[in-house]
Amino acid sequence: MMKRMIPFQTKSNLIPGTNYKEVYKNALNIFKVIKHKTKRKPFVRAAYFKKDKIFFDHFWNHLRQKRYPDRIRRLKCFAATIDLLEHSRTKPDSVPNPLKKSETLYRFEGLTKEKTTFYVQIKETKNGQKQLISIFPKK
To answer: What band does 4 get if pLDDT is binned at 50, 70 and 90?
Structure first.
């Protein structure tokens, strides 16, 4: 049995909007700021991983595989996810990837300003590269 992790309280709200176009546009504006900080692959520096870079390639591909209502649900937590990654030093749950033993999966738990619980999954490869895999709110 896993012990309950303490969620990180973010300073961000959920991204407002009811349709995909609205929410996606707001999430993309947040991502655009991150993208313009580098000439190469966009990343954020994660406080928990001693300021290591977390890349976004897998996240956008993963999101495209979901249906529109699920995309909206996940993207609404995007701003809070960036805040969590940049500031959280809370220890996440970590397990070896059952599909690929050379990878480790981390799951962070966060709370938005309005107390909505959400989860962020990060994948770390054996060479130390970290990728944002998924964001999803608690059901």
So the answer is: low
Please state whether 83 falls in left (phi above 0), alpha (psi between -120 and 50) or beta. Answer: alpha
To the question of pTM greater than 0.85 for the whole model, the response is yes
CA distances from 26 to 15, 31, 32, 56, 109 (A): 7, 9, 10, 17, 22
Q: What is the pLDDT of residues 16-33, one digit of tens each?
A: 998 999 999 999 999 999
Helix or strand run (H / E) with residue 64? helix 57-64
Q: Do 93 and 16 touch, CB atoms closer than 8 A?
A: no
| CB-based burial, 70-83: b 16+ in 10 Å, e otherwise | ebbbbbbbbbbbbb
Report d(CA 31, CA 46) in Å as an integer: 15
Is 26 in contact with 16 (CB distance < 8 Å)? Answer: yes
Residue 3: predicted pLDDT:
58
* Three-class DSSP category at 30: helix
Q: Which residue has the tokens 């580098």?
A: 38
* DSSP at 128: S
Neighbour tally for 110: CB within 10 Å: 24
